[in-house]
UniProtKB/TrEMBL annotation:
This is TetR/AcrR family transcriptional regulator. Residues 17-78 form the HTH tetR-type domain. Keywords: DNA-binding, Transcription, Transcription regulation. It holds the Pfam family EthR_C. Coiled coil: none annotated. The lineage of its organism: Bacteria, Bacillati, Actinomycetota, Actinomycetes, Pseudonocardiales. Residues 41-60 bind DNA. PROSITE patterns: HTH_TETR_2 (PS50977).
Length: 206
């Protein structure tokens, strides 16, 4: 009986997760096609996902809840790829840094519509804005700790970890959101090289 209960709970969670992802994918597609998230109705979002309005509200409190979950998702992806550099920041490995920067750019390329949605929602929904700030702060703290790791190993310059981490994190966010979506993908390699140069020269002694 206990195992059956756990199995049922797992199945329900999988169905909830699948439905949430279905709505998120549909929302990103609408925004990618030029729709403004602020102007989209719940009915439009539900219709694009192939569900009813009532089903939407079973899974989301409102549009703000949808935007908050999208925020958590894209920031989690950025955390995942950034960790490759955070965990090796004390090795002064430029190629490792370049690989991490390229992975971050790939997240912005794939999830560009999600970032646009979050940005639009944060402009008028204070709860989304607070969620975004909180999650960005988590990225800043992780970057600060990576800088401290590099400084302890003697491979990084004596910059202020907290302030430098904040500047670099928000710089990457602006480049990802504003520059990458407005340029031809063929130029993204150069953007990755430039970001790598900026971060490397700011932090490392070598």
């Amino acid at each position: 009986m206990p195992s059956m209960t756990r199995s049922n709970k797992t199945a329900r969670k999988e169905r909830r997760d699948a439905m949430e992802q279905r709505v998120i994918v549909a929302t990103e597609e609408l925004v990618r096609e030029g729709e403004s998230f602020a102007e989209l109705s719940v009915e439009q979002l539900a219709s694009a996902a192939g569900i009813s309005r009532s089903t939407f509200y079973v899974h989301f409190e409102d549009k703000g809840d949808l935007a908050r979950r999208m925020t958590k998702g894209v920031i989690a992806e950025l955390e995942g790829v950034s960790n490759d550099w955070w965990s090796t920041a004390d090795r002064a490995d430029r190629e490792q840094l370049r690989t991490a920067v390229n992975a971050i750019i790939n997240v912005y390329q794939r999830r560009g519509a999600a970032f646009t949605t979050v940005s639009q929602a944060a402009a008028y929904d204070t709860t989304v804005a607070e969620e975004l700030r909180g999650l960005m702060q988590r990225l800043i703290v992780a970057t600060k700790e990576a800088i401290e790791l590099g400084q302890a190993a003697g491979v990084m310059r004596p910059v202020e970890p907290k302030e430098t981490a904040a500047v670099l994190t928000w710089m990457i966010e602006r480049v990802g959101h504003q520059l990458l979506r407005q340029t031809d993908p063929s130029s993204h390699v150069k953007i990755a090289d430039t970001l790598t140069d900026v971060i490397w020269s700011t932090l490392y002694r070598v």
